[in-house]
Amino acid sequence: MSVGSIGEAGPEQGRLAFDEVEPASGEPEVDVAPYETAGPDEGPKRVVRVLPDVAAVSKAFDYLVPEAWSRDGRGERLGIGSRVRIILHGRRVAGWVVDDQVEPPPGVALRPLSRLSGLGPSVELIELARWAAHRWVGPVAGLLSTASPPTMVEALGSPPHPWTVPTTGDRWYDEAWRVDPDGRPSVVRLPPGDDVLPLVFEAARLGDALILAPTAEAVRRLAGQLRRAGVPVSVAPRDWARAAAGGVVVGARAGAWAPVRDLRAVLVLDEHDDAYREERSPTWNARDVAVERARRAGVPCVLVSANPSVESLEVA
To answer: How far apart are the C-alpha atoms of 175 and 210, rounded to whole Å?
Structure first.
């Protein structure tokens, strides 16, 4: 499936995520365009494209990066995925930078960005969100909200130190972790009650891994087992900043959108579970998002189930 450029307009948007629309200080609440009549040419300026987090707005708009930001360091921190505040139709709203260094339309003077709020999804996750919005026919903004940190994050910490993982004598899972040239996942039938730790540890041995489990309790249990083994682990979405810095990331449904610094492996436990399906539009499935994410990264993806779903068997 082809994916459009991340600066293009997406499908119709649904819900607000991390910021309610609020009146802009000193700005009338009127329906005005983000553009104004152009004035004298003042030389080249940095322009970014922003997708607003506003219901029923699917178009991205161009905004100027204030010159003051290049002097105080905010300009260096601003990039694709950054969460910002903008003035749109007389209101201050939240949004994401989806393109940088864009060529603005001729004959208009752009409004400046209002505020740099913090870090957001990577370029890869923005592209993945556009793919998911197209596949499940829903708003890109809702997916970007899921891929964003639950609280504002201004900077990431240091990456974790290298780790070693306990080895097991039985290497029955070796075949499952081979990268398929066509990007297809491996499906492992594991009877109920069988130990999944050999698969979990092998994912961690490969490097920064994304491991999904259907329930919060299963996620907590996996995180505890990995920590006791000396593996740096983050729980998504709570530990967003730590996850983005590196290490193994475990999560439930929303974990499919967690940041992983250098993705090396994807593991989905109980892939048949209905808990992986989002009930709100777009009704994406975390298993399918994880499979596509692994395919794009060129890394192995293993789906585990006692009773594999028809969908997983079709793509394997």
So the answer is: 19
